[in-house]
C-alpha cells in the first residue's frame, strides 16, 4: 500500500530521487545531500530517510557497476571502521537526538569548508590519512541521520588530491558500503517498512534515469569545473541545512 502523500509531496520526492541519482552517477554524492531536506518540506525527515534508503541501495548498484575498479581501495578500507562507528552511534542515539541541532552543525561545517576551498583551493600537500577514521565516523553518523554523508567525506577526500575519476569512484563505493551498513538498523527501527518499500519500488525507474544522466553529464565536465561544482554543492547544501535547522 502506497503512502497517502499530496501531489506536491510526490513531485518533491520524484525530483529529490532524480537529483540523488544524478549526483550518485557523476558528482560523488555532493548534490544528493539536498534530497532529504527537500523531501522534508512535504513529509517528515524520518519518512524521507526511510523511503530514500532502498533507492540509494538501487542507485549504488548502478553506480558501483559503472565506477568499479577506478576507486582507491586503500582509502575505502580506511573508511570502513569509521562508517561502522558512525552508524552504530546513530542507531544508539536514535530518538534522543535533536535533528535540528545535527542539521545546524553539519550545515555550518559545510559552508565553512566550502568557503575555505574556494578561497584557498590549493594545499601544499595532501592531508594525512589519519583523518580517515574521524571523517568516516562523522560520515556514518550524518549519513544515518539524514543521508548527509557527503560533506564530511568531501572534507577528507578533496584535500587528498585524487583525480576526478578516482574521487567519484571512491565516494561511490564508500557510500554503497555505508548504505548497506544502515539497512539493518533502519529496518530494526522501523524507518524502512512495507509502506515505504512500495513507494521506493515505484521510484526505481526515476533513480535509474538519474544515475544514467549523471554518468553522461560528468564525462562532459572538466576536472577543475567538477571540483568547483562539488564545492558549490557543499555550500548550497550547508545553507539549506542551516535554513532547515533554524526555520
Automatic annotation (TrEMBL):
Coiled-coil boundaries: none
Keywords in alphabetical order: Cell membrane, Membrane, Transmembrane, Transmembrane helix, Transport
Places the protein is found: Cell membrane
Keyword Isomerase: no
Signal peptide start-end: none
CC per GO annotation: plasma membrane
One family name in Pfam for this protein: TauE
Membrane topology: Multi-pass membrane protein
Transmembrane residue ranges: 7-27, 39-64, 76-95, 101-119, 131-150, 195-213, 225-246
Entry's family note: Belongs to the 4-toluene sulfonate uptake permease (TSUP) (TC 2.A.102) family.
PANTHER family associated with the record: MEMBRANE TRANSPORTER PROTEIN, TRANSMEMBRANE PROTEIN YFCA
Protein name: Probable membrane transporter protein
Protein species of origin: Vreelandella aquamarina
Lineage, opening ranks: Bacteria, Pseudomonadati, Pseudomonadota, Gammaproteobacteria, Oceanospirillales
